[in-house]
Design brief:
The chain is of the alpha+beta class. Helices cover about 35% and strands about 30% of the residues. Strands 2, 3, 4, 5 and 6 form a five-stranded antiparallel beta sheet that branches.
Length: about 160
């Protein structure tokens, strides 16, 4: 029976490359001259440190620009709440989404069942396995899931006949 997997994975090496590009640009940009702004990654969490809210917004713009250049959807970033650091500085944690959360997976399964498509969906850890009798049904399922308003980039892989 034909099947495919729906996953949400982010290449952390590309995120590292984007972070390195942001650090280079912070060092060379005139509006960051004398500012103590930085960005670093540990595991799947980015820590942004900025002098004030304006610089934090500029760092967000840089982050989305550099992620887009590296062909990573900026929607993978889950922005935390900005918190005060030492002095007037602002710190913000940005989590890189990896895998499909359980509630999102349940929502996708529910939508697929409600669509009356002839496919079965099974949650397998942080991915979804979609199976059907025909390849056309699976292609319709991919188009249907792409049409849903999901705020996380999804990849469709492991397509088997």
């Amino acid at each position: 029976m034909p099947s495919f997997d729906i996953v949400s994975e982010t290449d952390l090496n590309e995120v590292d490359n984007a972070v390195a590009g942001i650090q280079r640009e912070i060092g060379t940009r005139y509006d960051f001259k004398g500012a103590h702004c930085s960005i670093e990654r540990k595991e799947a969490v980015l820590t942004i440190l900025a002098d004030d809210d304006l610089k934090l917004k500029q760092m967000h713009e840089l982050l989305s620009t550099y992620l887009t250049r590296r062909k990573i959807d900026p929607k993978v970033c889950d922005l935390g709440k900005p918190e005060k650091a030492s002095g007037n500085a602002v710190r913000q944690l940005v989590t890189i989404k990896q895998g499909i959360a359980q509630d999102l997976a349940k929502k996708i399964v529910k939508e697929l069942k409600g669509s009356k498509l002839k496919v079965q969906a099974a949650i397998q850890g942080d991915s979804l396995r979609i199976t059907g009798k025909k390849r056309d049904d699976l292609q319709e399922a991919i188009a249907f899931v792409k049409g849903l308003k999901i705020d996380q980039p999804l990849q469709y892989e492991n397509f088997r006949d």
